[in-house]
Write a structure and sequence with these properties.
- Helix content is 53%, strand content 12%.
- The chain is of the alpha/beta class.
- α5 (74-85) packs across α6 (94-105).
């Protein structure tokens, strides 16, 4: 079974940032070749709507056969709130807490 890897827009944008390009491009090659499975949430898709076109094109380059959409549910919102209440994530980063919660509840193998 292919590892399921949750990605957000920072990973996609990393393909165009010299500091992260090498690793981000390697990950996208693994998605394209089928070695890994990309998991993307509706949170990420909402962020991509306002992202540069090159980021949207990079996201679209992942073959549908190696891609899965997941969604922020009420249960995920509650888990994100629990992360905030426990001090795991600062309230300033609620969207990060939501990304973590969605990935956790969907049992992805890694969140990058």
């Amino acid at each position: 079974m292919k590892p399921r890897i949750y990605i957000d827009t920072s990973v996609i944008g990393g393909c165009f940032d010299e500091e992260f390009k090498e690793w981000s491009e390697q990950l996208f090659e693994e998605f394209t070749s089928g070695l890994k499975f990309a998991v993307v949430s509706d949170l990420t898709l909402a962020e991509l709507a306002d992202a540069p076109e090159m980021d949207r094109k990079k996201h679209a380059s992942i073959p549908e056969t190696n891609y899965e959409n997941i969604y922020l549910t009420e249960k995920a919102e509650n888990l994100a709130e629990a992360y905030l209440n426990a001090g795991v994530v600062s309230p300033k980063y609620i969207v990060d807490a939501q990304h973590i919660a969605v990935a956790t509840l969907n049992k992805v193998d890694s969140l990058v």
